[in-house]
């Protein structure tokens, strides 16, 4: 029987979110598009500070700003999110399946 490691996510922690990352309009920015594939799928589109993206591995880092219920986790991106807006509510189950906490070194 295998055990899954429980992810520890709390307000203020950093979360690595899968997405497509492309070069932005200026050298310090990246364009992101994240697909949140749930019962009502949606996309997160925006321009993010390049320091918070990993183009090679397709990841963007956001800060957890609220965990009000077991249904949603609210994250804040370091940049301009044109769709759906910033901060973004992500379904808890999707976060647990697709995202990872980032270690604070």
Structure explained in plain terms:
The chain is mainly β and 105 residues long. The protein has one domain. The protein is built from 1 helix and 10 strands. The strands form 2 sheets. Strands 1, 5, 6, 7, 9 and 10 form a 6-stranded antiparallel β-sheet that branches. The N and C termini lie far apart (33 Å). The model has no long low-confidence stretch (mean pLDDT 89).
List the defining traits of the structure above.
105 residues, 4-stranded antiparallel sheet, mainly beta, 10 strands, single chain, 1 helix, 50% strand, 6-stranded antiparallel sheet
Element-level helix/strand string: EEEEEEEEEHE
Low-confidence stretches: none
Mean pLDDT across residues? 89
Number of helices: 1
Kindly name the structural category: mainly beta
For the sheet with most strands, the description reads: 6 strands, antiparallel
Q: What gross morphology would you assign?
A: globular
Helix content: under 10%
Count the domains. Answer: 1
Rounded to the nearest angstrom, the radius of gyration is 14 Å
Count of strand segments: 10
End-to-end gap:
33 Å
Strand content: over 45%
Oligomerization category of the chains in this entry: single chain
């Amino acid at each position: 029987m295998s055990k899954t490691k429980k992810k520890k996510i709390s307000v203020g922690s950093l979360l690595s979110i899968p997405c497509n990352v492309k070069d932005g309009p200026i050298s310090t920015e990246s364009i992101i598009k994240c697909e949140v594939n749930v019962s009502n799928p949606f996309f997160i589109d925006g321009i993010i500070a390049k320091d918070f993206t990993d183009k090679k591995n397709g990841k963007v880092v956001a800060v957890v700003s609220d965990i009000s219920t077991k249904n949603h986790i609210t994250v804040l991106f370091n940049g301009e999110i044109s769709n759906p807006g910033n901060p973004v509510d992500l379904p808890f189950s999707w976060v647990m399946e697709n995202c990872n906490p980032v270690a604070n070194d």
